[in-house]
Amino acid sequence: MTARTAAPGTSPTPPTTEPCPVAISIRSLNVKFGNRHVLRGIDLDVPRGSTLCVMGLSGVGKSTLIRSIVGLLKPDSGQILVNGQDVVPMNESELNEIRVKCGMVFQSAALFDSMTVGDNVAFALREHHHRGEEEIMRIVSEKLSMVDLEGMEHLLPSQLSGGMQKRASIARALASGADILLYDEPTTGLDPIISNVINELIKDLQRQITATSIVITHDLRSAYSIADEIAFLFNGEIVEKGTPQQFQKSNNPYVVQFREGSTRGPIRV
Ligand SMILES: Nc1ncnc2c1ncn2[C@@H]1O[C@H](COP(=O)(O)OP(=O)(O)OP(=O)(O)O)[C@@H](O)[C@H]1O
Ligand SMILES: [Mg+2]
Q: How many structural domains does the chain have?
């Protein structure tokens, strides 16, 4: 892994007129931090309009995987095609183009505390899109109503509950026009009912804007409810991938141990 800003730029493949049927395609992805080899030759395809849940133990590299997709870190080797374009060799300005279509909802919601909800949602629009203020406010209001936060532009993040902060963070990703959404533990720390509100929102966005989503979650119930496919990461590799039904029935010993929350099995705790 090297600092992302030092990445040399090479020209990405020009966009095609037909949308790529596979929104995200990862090949032989390797990420190391010093001598710690976190991701070891990951291959993954996420078809457009589908939801992939990524599960695995704490520290296994789930956040590293999605941070690589939006170029927040540069992998040691491999390809990450987003809408057919390899992000790995891209420079910051090319990555900013990718981040317009591919938004990240961070583990901590990561809203700017001193800015209102409206300004948080408008942030990328003001930074990168050069739109008039009236249009920005219209987009902000539209995205806030998509996440059921209509009229809350003027509140500060500290005046929102945890679940509302997560929704504001989703509105912020949507505001720049993203239809690929990468969620890092969107329901962690939320009660089961509010978790369900977030799960329903993820499913609504899949229907409304044909969103393609990667959702990192530790919550089996959430994964079974929202995923088209579940990938299970262990020791830097995807050791199981399949539909929720396949995951529920899998005899893979890593999956069985995770599903049962057992201290006994091949995963040493
Ligand atoms: N920038 C970094 N520099 C050095 N090591 C890092 C960095 N980012 C992550 N790591 C290490 O890489 C490993 C994977 O981290 P990552 O955050 O991807 O795990 P995770 O699966 O998301 O865990 P969690 O479920 O706890 O969020 C960890 O050992 C972590 O300490
Ligand atoms: Mg993480």
A: 1
What is the Å distance from ligand 1's center to 161 Cα? 27
Query: HSE (CB half, 13 Å, CA atoms) of 102?
Result: 27
* Domain ranges, residue 162: 23-260
Give the CATH number for residue 191.
3.40.50.300
**116 in a domain, yes or no?**
yes
Q: Which residue has the CA at smallest separation from atom 28 of ligand 1? A: 59
Ligand 2 (single-atom ion) residues, CB below 5 Å = 63
In a domain, 13, yes or no: no
Per-residue pLDDT in tens (0 to 9) along the chain, 269 residues? 554 443 343 444 555 556 789 999 999 999 999 999 999 999 999 999 999 999 999 999 999 999 999 999 999 999 999 999 999 999 999 998 898 899 988 877 688 889 999 999 998 888 876 788 898 999 999 999 999 999 999 999 999 988 899 899 999 989 988 999 999 998 888 888 988 999 999 999 999 999 999 999 999 999 999 999 999 999 999 999 999 999 999 999 999 999 999 898 888 87
* CB contact burial 151-162 (16+ within 10 A = b; e otherwise): ebbeeebeebee
Query: What's the full length of the chain, in residues?
Result: 269
